[in-house]
Design a protein that fits this description.
The complex is a heterodimer.
Chain A: H1 11-22, E1 26-29, E2 34-37, E3 47-54, E4 71-77, H2 83-93, E5 99-104, H3 107-122, E6 127-132, H4 152-165, H5 170-182, E7 184-190, E8 210-213, E9 224-227, H6 231-245, E10 250-258, H7 264-280, E11 283-291, E12 301-308, H8 311-318, E13 321-322, E14 327-328
Chain B: H1 3-19, H2 21-31, H3 36-53, H4 59-73, H5 78-93, H6 101-119, H7 129-144, H8 149-165, H9 190-206
Classes of the chains: A alpha/beta, B mainly alpha.
């Protein structure tokens, strides 16, 4: 598999070097792999730190900036970052009001963030962690590691970030972050697997007429394999899974997310079907985002994330944001 | 067993993980996210470097250094889990310059307890615990039977390898493979496989 890279072992640091060169509003510590806002912490503002494996760009580094994250810690490709990164990021963004850790629910992310939060607490920085687990493809039971954090991570980072800019205290910012997660659901479909640079070949093989349903964002196989069909049918499978878990009604924030290898042309075809499905259920896509935001390297496919809006969440979603990947209103 | 024995073990782990890097990654590609070999290789290469940079004085110090290095460098679930395993072993051994077989057995038991406390996995969940727990039992049994150190360690290594093979038919209940539900069956768990390699390296170090 051909890759636009220099060296398998320097994929993440080479990309961070580029991120730093492209965005002067960021301060990127390439060696320790931390993306900060160049302006530094604002006294009295709750700091927001997230992180996770690389390969999901623009998540999380592309969401650092006004109205969203204060820092992001990218790990190796699909590997959670290490506690040292998180500790340094947390201390670096603390403006005295404490720091919120936004953690996607994967065993590795949870363990490393837990270790970091404990050590930060020892050093006198107040840390509250919020878990994102929106993926309905995984049954949350004693028999799994629990639902994965996927597209809703963007919603949590944007909405909690907007509230933090208003000077709200840590408890409030954590409360709204949890509320967004609880109101959000996602489902993903792959048309092809992705290729991790270090592995050099696709993580699984799909035939010409096969698709994988219920995928996550790490190239892991999904729950079932099915026959490929028109966009309308694939979207219906995704929306049915979401609707069964949390019935859709009222005003909905929708993300139709590309997994990295799907043209925007096709994502809009998918969104047309999502909008039709919502209308059928008496819901409306009040706020919409279509594009590649929470990706899985070069995987072809898409995911849909919905969040049942409230007046507060809509207002915070509409608030100004200025990051490399998301910017409006400022 | 002195500090040199444990340094030899850790160096042996680094070399076998490097050799088996692609194999571990392929196991992980089947039911995970295709990074286990690369991550452990990066971690144990860093361990080898750390041991060279700051040579430890005692077995306990060597193991704590290895564990801390893994936590700092690996990431994922395997970083904290293996890091905790080695750190717990090291802490259990304390400052002793020499370690008996019985003390090694106690330390390995502490490693298992640390891993289970952090990861909340039990035997049968299709994780590293499925290789580590049988090894702990085999080593404790051999100590009770008064086995020679080399034989006791060989029994532990064999039990770990068998435990890893026995994960093949299991359905994963912890970690990333659990997302696959019943489709995780039919594949060896990469974490159990790497645990078997690590205990296999202990046998190699013991036979030197």
């Amino acid at each position: 598999m051909k890759k636009l890279i220099n060296n398998v072992d320097s994929v993440v640091t080479d990309a961070l070097t580029g991120l730093a060169a492209a965005h002067p509003a960021l301060r990127v510590d390439v060696e320790n792999k931390i993306v900060f806002r160049a302006a530094g912490p604002r006294p009295g503002k709750v700091g927001l730190v997230s992180g996770g494996g690389s390969g999901h760009e623009p998540l999380h580094g592309g969401f650092v900036g006004y109205g969203m994250l204060d820092a992001a810690c990218p790990g190796e490709v699909f590997t959670s970052p290490v506690p040292d990164q998180m500790i340094e990021a947390t201390k670096g963004v603390d403006g005295g009001a404490g720091v919120l850790h936004i953690v996607k629910n994967y065993t590795g992310d949870v363990l490393n963030f837990e270790m970091a939060a404990e050590l930060c607490g020892d050093e006198g920085v107040e840390v509250v962690s919020v878990l994102v687990n929106d993926d309905v493809a995984v049954r949350d039971s004693l028999y799994t590691a629990g639902r994965r954090g996927t597209g809703a991570t963007l919603f949590v980072e944007k909405i909690a970030g907007a509230l933090a800019e208003t000077g709200a205290p840590l408890g409030e910012v954590a409360r709204v972050a949890r509320e967004v997660n609880e109101r959000s659901r996602s489902f993903g479909v792959a048309l092809s697997a992705c290729t991790v640079p270090a592995a050099g070949k696709p993580t699984f093989e799909l035939g010409e007429s096969e698709i994988e349903l219920g995928i996550g964002i790490h190239g892991e196989p999904g729950r079932t394999r099915a026959a490929h069909g028109p966009a309308r049918e694939l979207v219906r499978v995704a929306m049915d899974a979401i609707h069964e878990d949390l019935p859709l009604s009222g005003e909905v924030l929708v993300l139709v997310n590309g997994m990295g290898g799907t043209p925007l042309l096709e994502l809009y075809i998918a969104f047309a079907e999502v909008a039709a499905y919502l209308r059928e259920k008496g819901a409306s896509p009040a706020r919409v985002l279509v594009g590649n935001y929470v990706t899985s390297l070069d995987m072809q496919g898409f995911s849909v994330t919905t969040c049942a809006l409230t007046e507060e969440l809509t207002r915070l979603w509409d608030a100004p944001v200025e990051t490399p990947a998301l910017r409006w209103g400022r | 067993m002195d500090v040199q024995f444990f340094v030899t073990w850790l160096e042996e782990v680094a070399s076998v993980v490097q050799t088996q890097r692609d194999h571990l990654t392929q196991l992980d590609a089947a039911i995970g996210d295709a990074d286990h070999g690369a991550n452990l290789d990066r971690g144990f290469t860093a361990v080898r470097q750390a041991l060279a940079d700051t040579p430890p004085d005692t077995p306990g110090a060597a193991l704590v250094l290895a564990g801390s290095t893994l936590i700092r460098r690996v990431g994922g679930a395997s970083g904290p889990l293996y890091g905790t395993a080695f750190r717990q072993m090291g802490k259990t051994l304390g400052d002793a310059p020499e370690v008996s077989l019985a003390e090694l057995s106690t330390a390995l038991d502490a490693a298992l307890a640390g891993v289970q406390k952090l990861g909340a996995a039990v035997e049968g969940d299709k994780t590293m615990v499925d290789a580590l727990a049988p090894a702990v039992r085999a080593l404790a049994g051999a100590v009770q039977d008064g086995a020679k150190p080399a034989d006791a360690i060989a029994a532990a290594a064999e039990a770990a390898a068998e435990g890893a093979r026995a994960t093949i038919p299991l359905q994963a209940r912890k970690g990333r493979a659990s997302y696959l539900g019943s489709r995780s069956a039919g594949h060896e768990d990469p974490g159990a496989a790497s645990t078997a390699l690590i205990l296999g390296a202990l046998r190699t170090a013991g036979s030197r």
